[in-house]
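Appendix B, Record 12. Input sequence as logged:
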Amino acid sequence: MYLYSIVGFQGAAVTLVELGDYDRAASLLEKLTQEKQKDPDAYRLLGEVKYELKDYSGSVAAYRNSLSLSGMDNFEVLRGLVNALLAAEKPDEVLLDVREQLNVESERRSDVLADTAGSDVQNVDPIQIDLLLGKAYSNWGHVSDAVSVYDQIISAYPDDFRGYLAKGIILKENGKVGDAERMFIQARFFAPDKAKALVDQYSRR
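Logged structural output:
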């Protein structure tokens, strides 16, 4: 496939996605990933399309390929993988995938930092990763494990509202309204102004 054809395929696939024609988009993207086997964006887009088609196994495979190529710097790909695994009712694999990727990325970052001392290396927000793990535990029915993850967030980042909010949500879902309300109060106290409405939204449900 010539370069102009590859570019044309990718542009056509994006257009088809925007039009909601996921079947044709998937067909084009599968051809594209065969030609551009080291392009994480092509795999990411294929993962999104497969998810919309409810082909969750295909979505998981595409996101895993994208993640292996792009690394943990791409949180959106990791989140897409988690959502696909949860939709496929495989929350146990979420824990394995995320932990494995964290270990791989940690080793990679150590190498990069050793080679580029003083350079600006982008970091993934660790709270976002832990929130994904908590979500996986919750969907798996392991409420106490999810709460434990949120407690760890609160302990490590006591001034960040997200740990309190996540814990409040899961406590409320499980009938512990009083405990949940205390978490929402803490979340609202630490939340930036633009996030206070979000806290209120969950606390009033």
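DSSP finds eleven helices and no strands in the chain.
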